[in-house]
Amino acid sequence: MTDQLDPRPEDLKQRVWESIQRDELPPRDDRGRMRVVMNNLVLHLHPSKISKATLKFTYTWGLGGLALLLVMILSFTGVMLMFVYTPSSDTAYQDMLSLQTEVRFGQFIRNIHHWSGNLLVVVAFLHMLRVFFTGGFRTPREFNWILGLLLLLLIVAANFTGYLLPWDQLAYWAVTVGSSLLSFVPLIGEELRNFLLGGPEVSGATLTNFYGLHVAIIPLTLMGIISFHIWRVRKDSLSIPHKLDGSVDGATGHQIEKVTTLPHLVSRELAFALVMTGAILLWSVWVDAPLEDAANPDHSPNPAKAAWYFMGLQELLLHFHPVFGAIIIPALGLGMLAFLPYQRFDMSAEGVWFRSQKGRRMAYVGVLTALIAVPLLVLWDEYYLDLPGKFPNLPTAVSNGWLPLAALLLMLIGYFDGVKRLFRATACETRQSVFVLLVTAFIVLTVIGVAFRGEGMTLTVPWEVL
Amino acid sequence: MTQVTTTESGVSRRDFLKIAWGAAGALALVEAAGVGLSFFSPRVVEGEFGGIFDAGAVDSFAVGSVTPFTQGRFYIVRMPDGGFLALYRKCTHLGCAVPWNPAEGRFVCPCHASAFEMDGTVINPPAPRPLDRFQVTIVDGMVKVDTGKAISRDKTSSDDLVYAGGAV
User: Cα A450 vs. chain centroid, distance in angstroms?
Assistant: First the structure.
């Protein structure tokens, strides 16, 4: 009678254990493995079974997982840093110095945090490229692409707010330059900038604001959307990698083989996480995060550059009216990115790298065009072209804004039409070629801004700059 | 049999309640947003940058000179014709602190090479407009500068200049 009322084992130790871990460990069979994944708080972010083909490393490059690992590393080291840092303009820089000289492993922990944060921007960007080039945003995954874009923006925001906290010259002027971009938003720009900075200039109030954003608001939002993002991946599963001929890559036979997540996926993830953690630790042992002199609002360094991920934008600003360089062109770019998954995807196979053989050749054309055209355009504008001087009667918003933007858009339309005809390609392959061209252009602009802009932001050679 | 009571206006009791609850919820959201915006809005610190500065006596500024005021973040410019101008030192491009270059007789921004004439006129882009100015008042031969509000302008104008009228 009592056995029926309480079917649990008599042994107390076993009862306690089973109250915590409900399933048998290690699991005996595939059913058991699936149950463990389903009933475990962390593991249940995964489905219990996955397609074997998606395990192929060179399909995903583990980029999403790596981004998550970096977020975890950043959370741990970030909380540690909170214990040795006071966000006040009087103490912040002093805290940085003592962090690097007095706190045991202080420099090391700061290095890990600094490099992981920078790497996260790169990894999130590469992750986006991977998903684009394998068509991973096709129905039903459109909205998850949007969530990914939001995450990318949040990651940049987290980096930008963290950039100010050391309160050195680098931080102060990069944030001054970066936040000035905001003030060019039509109508509400000044208000927006003042609201964010807590006044018209970067000051102690800015440090308080950015600290709150950096340690609470952005991380919480990030965690929320990451959960949503991963949950969507679990619901929709990964796109299946295909070869050019349409056969499933990494699988034998017709049937798409499924394997249990435990251990096939989980063991790979853990191994990859371990290798990457090791790499980051090693890098952080050898390379110190930069720290310049204490912030001095009276003296701008020459040149004053924004954070590296904004250098593409800053380079645009040297060529366009600020409203165009800082607001309209980036907004157009983001709008195009957000709209991408909602356009018709007229390819038969999803999961084929670069769509097709033709798609691959056209992607090369995109890269080459940008590699040649962008430096030429930059040089031309720097040394010969003077649109405001040519049209002195027009407002600069027209002569240095609408006019060059319209010319560039016309060139892009010409490119789209040209390669589409030349290759007899589908709209889908052509769009990819334009996407590759624009991404390459952005990277080239960033490299020019980081490595080729010296004193007074004049063009020079990299060994004069770096 | 359920009976939905309808008033003369055609809105049922249930619809009315739905709308009322929805409106109350929306109102609560607007209120929360309002409180949040006010709570986080910038606070002005009295007596610091943002207040009124005493720059000094009119006679202490030579005609055709530029004098920096670090605390107030402005320059007192005395034009060759004797007119006074207070220029905000913040570059109108991306906000760097613009130093006065006495050798070249112009303001040159170290960040992106914008250059301005003595009165703030743009000589060299990328700066989109002249240096902002602060209101100058001359009371009893003393130059006072109100740093509370930077006045942005699309073109420099001789109307921006303030003269020590009483002294002439």
Answer: 18
| Arithmetic mean of pLDDT over chain A | 90
Q: How many CB atoms lie within 10 A of CB A321?
A: 27
Q: Which residue has the higher pLDDT, A5 or A168?
A: A168
Q: Which residues are CB-neighbours of A97 under 8 A, at least 6 positions away?
A: A291
In whole angstroms, give the CA distance from residue A343 to residue A162: 36
Decide if A318 and B90 are in contact by the 8 Å CB cutoff: no
User: Are A202 and A172 contacting, i.e. CB atoms less than 8 angstroms apart?
Assistant: yes
Q: So what's the ipTM on this one?
A: 0.79
Give me the residue from A197, A388, A456 closest to B113, CB to CB.
A456
Assess contact for A136 and A127: CB atoms under 8 A.
Answer: no
Q: How far is CA A5 from the centre of its chain?
A: 55
pLDDT of residue B4: 58
Does A288 contact chain B (CB < 8 Å)?
no
Question: In this structure, are residues A46 and A37 in contact, taking their beta carbons and an 8 Å threshold?
Answer: yes
If one compares A169 and A3, the residue with the highest pLDDT of the two is A169
Q: In terms of C-beta density within 10 A (0-12 exposed, 13-18 middle, 19 or more buried), how is residue A98 classed?
A: middle
Average model confidence (pLDDT) across chain B = 82
The answer for residues whose C-beta is within 8 angstroms of residue A288's C-beta and 6 or more apart is A107, A111
CB A397 within 8 A of CB A321: yes
Task: Output the CA angle A273-A277-A279, nearest 5 degrees.
Answer: 120
In the predicted model, is pLDDT for residue B49 greater than 90? no
Mean of the pLDDT values across residues A46-72? 92
Is there a contact between A300 and B49 if contact means CB atoms under 8 Å apart? no
Interface test mutation site (partner B, options A175, A179, A180, max chain B beta carbons within 10 A)? A180
Residue B5, pLDDT score = 59
Query: Which of A147-156, A276-285, A395-404 is predicted least confidently?
Result: A395-404
C-alpha–C-alpha distance, residues A151 and A224, integer Å: 10
* Nearest neighbour of B110 by CB, restricted to A176, A198, A301: A301
Q: Is A357's Cβ below 8 Å from some Cβ in B? A: no
Residue A241 DSSP label: P
- Inter-residue contact B87 to B63 (CB < 8 Å): no
Q: Do A346 and A352 form a contact (C-beta atoms < 8 A)?
A: no
Indicate the pTM of the whole model. Answer: 0.89
Asked whether the CA dihedral B89, B92, B95, B100 is positive or negative, the reply is negative
